[in-house]
Amino acid sequence: MTLQDLLDRQEIHDLLVRYCHGIDRHEWARVEAVFTPDATLDYTAFGGPRGSVGEVVPFLRTAVTNLSGCQHTISTSLVDIDGNTATARTAAQVMMMLMKDTPTLFGLWYRDQLIKTSQGWRIRERVQEFGWIHNAPSTPAS
Hints:
By secondary structure, this protein is an alpha+beta fold.
């Protein structure tokens, strides 16, 4: 493994973490910045949309803003780099306060296609894979 390989892996890891912090802090410009302008996002595994950053980020903004709290954590990223492209599969656990005083926990995987741009690594395709749900509400929180 070369020094460049290590630097690329660290930059990809930081990119994935910036997404989580951006969502949880409601910093939508930060969320948008992790993707290429032409990225495709597929959040249908949990009932969200599939589309461009401009179509999916407004959905995320509305969904997260209506919660009383949420926290994204990621782990066990498997990253394969091939020159200026890479794939990553990352485990994620998301705690959301959907019901008053009762957290709902979501387990999922992010499958990402990444590309190294002049601004650094960016996600050009993200697919959310269903893992599990704990304490799912039977009706939406109000």
